Structures are given as C-alpha cells and as structure tokens.
Amino acid sequence: AQAASDTAADLTAKLPELNIGLVHGRMKAQEKQHIMAQFKAGELDLLVATTVIEVGVDVPNSSLMVIENPERLGLAQLHQLRGRVGRGNIASHCVLLYKSPLSKTAQKRLGVLRESNDGFVIAQRDLEIRGPGELLGTKQTGIAEFKVADLVRDQYMIPQIQKLARYIHQNYPDNAKAIIDRWLANRENYSNA
Asked: Which residue numbers delimit the Helicase C-terminal domain (predicted)?
C-alpha cells in the first residue's frame, strides 16, 4: 500500500493536469468501490493500484496497464492483472517494468506472458518452470523430491496411480504406511487421513 501511495503522489506531482486515483487493499471496501466507480465513469485519467484489482474489476475503457516488479508475482496473477485491460473496443497494452538483471527463471516466466494469452498454456508453463512443490506438505513451489516421476511429463498416469494407491491402502495398510514412511521426509501420518 505504501509503494502505491508513493507512486500516486509522485505521478500527481509530475502530471498535475491528470486526475489520479489510488486503490489498495488497506482501504475500506466502500472507499475502493467509490474510486473504482470514478475510474469506470471516466472521472479519473489514471488509477494507481495494488493487486487488489486482480479480480472482479471490469472497466472497458481501460487501455493501458503498467505492472512494476512483475518478477515478484506469479504468472496466474500477472495473467489476471493484464486481463483487466482490453475489455472494450480500444486497443490495449500491458507493460511489465522490471529492473535488470533478471534471473534466468524470471526471464523464462515473463517470456511465457509475452508468448501466450492462453491461461491454460500459462498455467502449464508455470508448473514446468516453478515446479509443483510438495503434494503432501507445505512447500508450494519448487522441484518435487520424486526420484522417478515428473508430474508434468507423467500426468496421464495419475488416475491409474491413484487407483493403485487406494487399493494398496485398503488391502495392505501396513505396506501403505511403510511406503509413505519411506518416501515422505516430514513423516506426517497421511495414511490415517
């Protein structure tokens, strides 16, 4: 909220002829709704916002979005944000502002947005780049510690594996517990879930 407030103040000082609004998550809902209504009605020329505008905002006359530090956001979130512009019949653009140098991973991730507007393609590439994280744990991103399987490459096998896992769990509970204990580093008791 502070960075957005600073940006709005800076832009207001540099562009005094424009009516500039500000929306962030720490504002009361009624205040946010009022500012969004002003923007939608064309009473504001420019809106500075945090990611609070990611969902549920429909301003068809909005034609330009500038996202600062996009490397800090997930691809799904960036895709949602850029979807806030271009809803009307005016050509629209989404500009991603970042400071060099970007890591190789950040370059790949932002490249995905440059190459595709398809949310499913973006989600698939995000999974490939960031990794699935832990299926049974708290780590949301990163390469899984599987020794053989690759969730992206082998996803077609998941229904068969689930069926086999249920069979083992129901018919051989001691074996199921031994398998879980062998493969899970954090040793949670998932066999009794």
From this structure: 1-128
